[in-house]
Each structure stands twice: as C-alpha cells, then as structure tokens.
Amino acid sequence: MEFRYLPMTEQDKKDMLSTIGVQTTDELFADIPESIRFKGDLNIKPPANEYTLTKELTDLSQQNINTKSHTSFLGAGVYDHYIPSIVNHVISRSEFYTAYTPYQPEISQGELQAIFEFQTMICELTGMDVSNSSMYDGGTALAEAVNVSAGHTKKKKVLVSKAIHPESMAVIHSYVKGPGLEIVEIDHVNGVTDLEQLERELDENTASVVIQYPNFFGQVERLDRVREIVDQEKKAMLIASSNPLALGYITPPGEFGADIVVGDAQVFGIPAQFGGPHCGYFATTKKLMRKVPGRLVGQTNDEQGRRGFVLTLQAREQHIRRDKATSNICSNQALNALASSVAMSSLGKQGLKKMAWMNLQKTHYMKKQLENAGFELAFRGAFFNEIVLKLDEDVELVNQELLRQGFIGGYDLHRDFSDLKGHMLVAVTEIRTKKEIDQFVKEVGDICG
Amino acid sequence: MANQDFPLIFELSQESRTGYSLPEFDVPETNIDEQLGDAFVRKSEPDLPEVSELQIMRHYTALSTRNHGVDSGFYPLGSCTMKYNPKMNEDVARLTGFSHIHPLQPEGTVQGALSLMFDLQETLAEITGMDTVTLQPAAGAHGEWTGLMMIRAFHEGNGDFNRTKVIVPDSAHGTNPASATVAGFEAVTVKSDDRGLVDLEDLKRVVDEQTAALMLTNPNTLGLFEENIEEMASIIHEAGGKLYYDGANLNAILGYARPGDMGFDVVHLNLHKTFTGPHGGGGPGSGPVGVTAEFEPFLPKPILIKRNEEFVFDYDRPKSIGRVKPYYGNFGINVRAYTYIRTMGAEGLKKVSEYAVLNANYMMRRLQQEYDLPFEQHCKHEFVLSGKRQKKLGVRTLDIAKRLLDFGYHPPTIYFPINVEEAIMAEPTETESKETLDAFVDAMLQISQEAKDDPEKVQEAPHTTIVSRMDETKAARKPVLRYLKEE
C-alpha cells in the first residue's frame, strides 16, 4: 500500500539508519519493554484510497438530513444564518489553518493581527473593554466566567438564571466542582428570570449573577433591573451570556454595566456542524483584564518602530503559571474566530445591524402568523429571534410530521423543562422567507388542528 | 497608524461601503423598537469596518502571507506534532451533510454523523487499548480536565475523599498541573532522573494515600520512552491511585504500544496533533478521552450507544461527571481525524510512528555534532537539545530560534521542557522528507558556526522577516488589546 503523506523512500531510510548507527527502525523502539509491546495489527478498517473513501464518506454524509435539504426553524443556541462565500475562502488559506498558536510573532503577524481585529470587533459588539482571542464555545466560556468571578471576588455562591441554555447550565455544574462553588438556580417566570427570587438569594457570599441575554427562550431580560439588584452587593459581579448577533440591534450588556460578557460567535460565519467547533468569546472590563482565561493579543512595535502584535499578559496562562493558573485552556478556536471576523467585516457596521433587525422582524412576522392561525405563545415579553409556541401535542411527534413536510421543527423545551410540556422553541433567522414561514404555520396548523 | 504600518481592517473603512448581500426582506414591517422598549434599542452601531468584498479578500490574503503554516514551510515545533494537514479531510468536513446539521435534530435524522462518531470512538479505543472513548472534550487541556474529573468521581464513588493530589513530572506540559488545579486537586511534582525519565525513588517518595493520579506522557516531553512504565503503574496502583495518559505524544507509538497495555486508566488524545486536525492558528482542536471499563459510568453525558441497529444518545447516566461541553464535541475536527485514520489504516498508522521516530533520531544525531544532547539514548518522535554551548558564546536559544526564521523555518519549541537549560525541542513529524530534514539541520549547523564566528548575526536575527523582534515588555506594561480610532 502506498501512503501519500509519507515521503521517505527505502534508500532514504537506509541512509538515515546508517547515520543514526542502527540497522533497523525496530532498534529505535527497543526501549519499549517487550511485555507492553503491541503485537499484531490494530483491528481497525484497512487503508482506503482517496476516491473510494471520499465516495463512502459522501454517501454517509447524505444520510443526514441537513439545513440545506430541509427548512429549519431549529435554533436553541445554534443558528442557521447567511454565511458569505468569502468566509470559507479566507479560512481555507492554509497559511492560517496549518499554523499553530502564534508563538513567533515575526512570522505570525497575520494570525496575530486577525485575532487583534477579532478582539476589537467583540469589544464593539458587547460594549466591553477587553476580549480574549476565543474560547471553545459559549457554554464553556460561561463556565469559565463563573470560575473567574469566584476567583476574583473570593466568594463561592453563584446565582444562575434557569433561563440560560440548559447545556450551558450543565457545563457550569461540571466546571464548578473543581473550585467547589455553590450554584443556586433562579427560576423563570413568564419566560424571564424571576428577579424577586434573584434579589432574595443575593447575599454577601454571592460571587456573581449569570443571565443569558436574550435568554434561552429568546426573551430579552431586563438587564437594567438585574444590574440594580446585583449592585446591592458591592462585590457581586454580573455575567451576561449573549448571542452577539442580537447585540447588533439590542443594547449591549456593557452598557448595563456587565462585568463579563460571553457567548458564541457561531452566528457569524460558522456552520452548525453538529454542534462544533463553534467559537466562544470572552469579554470583560479593564479591571479584570489580568483575570481573563486564554490567549490575548496586544499591540506593540518592533525594533524599527513598526506596529506589530504579540501574545501578551501570558503570566495568566497555564504554560507560565502551571498549577497556579486559574484556567487550563491552551488550544482555542482561532480559525473560527477568523471566520467570524471575516463575516463581521463583510456585514460591517450597517449590515450587522440590518441582519439583527431582520431576525427581529421575521420572528415578529412568525409570531403574528401563528397568533392569526389561533396558536398561543407562551411568553409575552420582548424577544430577539426565538419565540415559544404552546402546543397541545407532543412536540416530538409534531416534529416528526414536520420532517415529512420538509421542515426541521423547533426545539422541544420539555426535554429540559418539566413545566414546559408541549412547548416548542421556534427560531426565525434572516434567511427564512415569508413563504417558508407561512408554510410552516400552515403545516403546524394542519398537524395540530 | 504610521506609513510603514500594515493597515488594520478598521483603517480601510469608509462610511456606507458594503461587503454583504443579505437575504431579501419580504415580510411586513413591525414597530420592533416599541416592543423592545427604548432602553433596549441599541443607540450607536458597533464600529465594525465598512469595506467591500475585494478589500476584505485582499486584506486577509495579505495577512495570510504574513503568517507561517505547515504548508508554507517546515514547522518542527516540539510537542505540537505539526504534520501535514490532508486537503481531503477539509473537503470531507465541509460536505453539506456533515457541516450543515444541527446538534439538536432528532437522532433519526443524523444517523450518518452518529455512525461516524461511533466508529471513531471504537477506532480510538482500539488504537489506545482502552475500553471506551468519549468525543466530547474540545481540546487536549479540556480532555485532561475531563479525565481528572472522572478520576475524582471514581475515588469519591468509592467513598474516598482524601485523594487530593495529582502527581506531575517536572517535564510535563503546563496544562497538566493547571488541569489538576482546575479539577480541584493539588499538583505535586516528581523529579526526572539523569536519564530524563521519571525518578522512581522520587515517585515512591511523593506517592501516598492522598494520591489521586499520576499524569504522564509517554514518550515524555523529552521525547524519551518511560521504560519503567510498568513499575510506575504498579507503584501508583498499589497506592490506590490511577494513571493518566496525556496523549500529546501518541504520534511516537501508534501500532507499537498502547497506553491501555502500559497500565493507563484514562487517556486523552489530541486529534489535532496525531490525527491531522489542522491547528488553525491555535485551534479548534479535539480532545477525546478513553477509559478502562471501571471508569465507564463516569463518562461525560450523553454517551453514544447503538440500540436496535440505531445510534442514540444515552442521557440516563447517574454517575456521569456531567457535561463538559454543549453538544457532542468538535464534530468537524472529528470528521477530519476519522478521514485520516481511514486513509492510513493499521498499516499506515504504524508507518507514521516508524517514520516520526526515524526522522527525529536522524535529525538528533546530525545535530548532536554541534548542540548539546542532554540524554544520549534513542529518542522517540521528538528530542530536546540544550543551547548551553552556544550560550557560553553569548548566543541564546532565543537567538537561534530567531535566526532560523531567516531560513524560512518555524523554530522548534524553546525553553521547554523547563528541566533542560536553554532547551530546544524539535519534532519533525513523519510527513517531512529527508531533503527537508537535511536542509534544516544544515541551517542549524550554520547558525552554530555563526555563533562562533559572528555572534551578532545570530543575536540580531531575524534579518529577513517583515517585522523584527517585538517589544514584548511594552505590550505587557501598557496593554493595547483592541483598536481605537485615533481622535
């Protein structure tokens, strides 16, 4: 069998072995004790040629119903948006995707500058002073934010709204086991965080309050009132998790005095790809700059005074601080941050606002059409691009029928919320057309009628 | 911005220029501001660039030329396994049926994706000699933390709450002690001996009834195989601790040895290293974790199982450590790794390690003429030199690294591992040709000669890059972490 990724010829091998001073490559493995040496062949599939394997995997991929074959109203944290062609062309530049972390600034200015631009864009969107170069995803970014708040305030109690993404909630619960924090979940009332309960639970042991804005149900939380409550405890911090696209139209958390804003930039140029890789972001205030997990790129200049960029404030990070580090993150999502930067550059100041506005408008249209068809929405508050539809039927069964009609239906909230049986979370993005929305409403009507 | 500076995309911006093409707005307009309420309508737009599509393309194309990747040239960055990233993998990962599927679609609609994940799990279990694998962790460090949380849950499940310490060799990656801390353990260091291996006497000294685990890479970060691994395993196991394998260096032993057979209980892999997931300028990676059967109940949930010929997620996992990530891991990277493994098969993977080790030993022996080699034995996939001979001439390892830039190379990892003075850690990988290795060695030998004849040439390097050495002190003292328009 030939292997196109392995360039050595038999002659090369012979020459190299001779330089090393051994007869066979096996001698180089002599330090592996006989007793643990693997004998025989790994029991995995045999090597495949490029054509055959491509065909096999293409066939396999076609077994998946996808958001191109079907019209999707499924969101719940991952969204089907317009992705400019240019994004894939840029991230396919192999100088970007075959590089690693830019440790050598002289030959990594491209990546470093791209990250610096990403950091700037995230700051602009969130209204914060500082952004890092990316996190794994929105969920882990949120969990890291919780740990940062506890480390900074030296307090152990965190109040987390139940109206955040349930999978982010699960990740938070896993992450806080290390530092041993106490999570108090705050109920939702009418689709938003119960502020009275929040106020009752807030005390001098509270490190932070975690709110998703817009929340998992699409509702725009009253961050202004949350901030007032958080302010009752001098040290307590406000952490907001935000869909950054929404911030193109709604007031960013930074303007409400959030201390940390996190989220996922998947909405900008990154396909759903079954849940990952996406692109977490982490933004905060100047005050907390030295507590930020992960890589930060800073501006400086070279010996000739030319502007340039470097990884900076590295004393925060695991490779310097080792067991004193507060986060262990090393690899991040740099290439996806680049994809998001390109998408944000394409949209620009006006386009991003317009895209956010279209999400709002089209979701409003969906709401009206559903109401006109006699459906009831669960919540009455302001929303971004998701609404909660109250059905008398089992959402899973409705979705099965919708699938037959060419739709990927909304998210079954009963999976995570026992009080929301028969509730479907419906997402409407800018790419959905009036016709698709009308058709969806009709189909749901037919199924539930 | 000075004339000599390369522009930021913000500096190309002109009001009202557009680079987008949004879908049609085809629904009746609603007064959404009224519904949101004044306080929640953003008053000023985020100051994003306003540029045309060509401007964006030129900007990022120019940036890409200011960046060095594996496709640009040799990249022997130790511990990072900078091997070739096959283009086919990129195409497969972008297939619509893989890239445009939503993680919350009904399982019945994503059987193709689930079957790939299942097969990858089984394949990685076979390669590592473990019983079962989770694909959920997003990267190596994330996998380390996941594995340690499982070890913690295991001990606690036995009613053993006193195992608070994780032993880490002094040569370990920084993520190891950091992961231990983040998982709520105390990191304890075990020393290396004069052969660069874990000092067994010191290990016996630090191990006790509080030991939760020993974290180890094998081969270790010096590129040396821990020959006493079985004895180390029994020291740890007899004390009631567990053995954790950092898979960063798996590229050395594919088909030659398996962590499971060495006595490891928990293993993470870096699919972006050994299995060609591209490094992406820092990520995304993928860090699956393999475990022995006794850890299976603690795996992150959900786990992927096959039930009546259908792949489904099982959430009913009462002992699970919970979720470590939303959804099911970095699927896109897992597709790339799967494509690679299928391309190579058992035969190809074994050759990968054979050539990775051959290449490293060849380079090491040639470089040994001029550079100090702290450990004389054969290395595995990487090796560590010391620049202390050159340091005596006033040329530091940093200078050598910078001089290599003039030859078009990405330098090896430097000043790591921390237990070797002026360390130079090189990992050629198996995808490099002999010609490339020879040319790199020749450059290193030339630099060593320059250190003797013309040290300033090395000290002042690089001479040919688009920028020279950066003022890192200034960057850290007065951090500028974002662009602000000049007033």
UniProtKB/TrEMBL annotation, chain A:
Record-linked SUPFAM superfamilies: PLP-dependent transferases (SSF53383)
Enzyme class: oxidoreductase
A molecular function GO annotation: glycine dehydrogenase (decarboxylating) activity
The Glycine cleavage system P-protein N-terminal domain, residue ranges: 4-442
Keyword Oxidoreductase carried by entry: yes
InterPro entries: GcvPA (IPR023010), GDC-P_N (IPR049315), GDC_P (IPR020581), PyrdxlP-dep_Trfase (IPR015424), PyrdxlP-dep_Trfase_major (IPR015421), PyrdxlP-dep_Trfase_small (IPR015422)
Keyword line: Oxidoreductase
Catalytic activity: N(6)-[(R)-lipoyl]-L-lysyl-[glycine-cleavage complex H protein] + glycine + H(+) = N(6)-[(R)-S(8)-aminomethyldihydrolipoyl]-L-lysyl-[glycine-cleavage complex H protein] + CO2
EC number of the protein: 1.4.4.2
Keyword Oxidoreductase: yes
Similarity comment: family membership: Belongs to the GcvP family. N-terminal subunit subfamily.
Assembly, per entry: The glycine cleavage system is composed of four proteins: P, T, L and H. In this organism, the P 'protein' is a heterodimer of two subunits.
Role: The glycine cleavage system catalyzes the degradation of glycine. The P protein binds the alpha-amino group of glycine through its pyridoxal phosphate cofactor; CO(2) is released and the remaining methylamine moiety is then transferred to the lipoamide cofactor of the H protein.
Entry-linked PANTHER family: GLYCINE CLEAVAGE SYSTEM P-PROTEIN, GLYCINE DEHYDROGENASE (DECARBOXYLATING)
The protein, known as: Probable glycine dehydrogenase (decarboxylating) subunit 1
Species for this entry: Halobacillus campisalis
Gene behind the chain: gcvPA
TrEMBL record, chain B:
Named cofactor requirement(s): pyridoxal 5'-phosphate
Glycine dehydrogenase C-terminal domain mapped to chain residues: 353-454
Annotated organism of origin: Halobacillus campisalis
Protein name: Probable glycine dehydrogenase (decarboxylating) subunit 2
PANTHER family: GLYCINE DEHYDROGENASE (DECARBOXYLATING), MITOCHONDRIAL (PTHR11773:SF1), GLYCINE DEHYDROGENASE, DECARBOXYLATING (PTHR11773)
Ranges for domain Glycine cleavage system P-protein N-terminal: 51-300
Family stated for the protein in its record: Belongs to the GcvP family. C-terminal subunit subfamily.
Purpose of the protein: The glycine cleavage system catalyzes the degradation of glycine. The P protein binds the alpha-amino group of glycine through its pyridoxal phosphate cofactor; CO(2) is released and the remaining methylamine moiety is then transferred to the lipoamide cofactor of the H protein.
Keyword tRNA processing: no
UniProt KW Nucleotidyltransferase keyword: no
Protein EC: 1.4.4.2
N6-(pyridoxal phosphate)lysine modified-residue sites: K273
Keyword terms: Oxidoreductase, Pyridoxal phosphate
Basic and acidic residues bias spans: 451-460
Region of interest called Disordered, as start-end residue ranges on this chain: 451-472
Catalytically driven reaction(s): N(6)-[(R)-lipoyl]-L-lysyl-[glycine-cleavage complex H protein] + glycine + H(+) = N(6)-[(R)-S(8)-aminomethyldihydrolipoyl]-L-lysyl-[glycine-cleavage complex H protein] + CO2
Quaternary structure (record): The glycine cleavage system is composed of four proteins: P, T, L and H. In this organism, the P 'protein' is a heterodimer of two subunits.
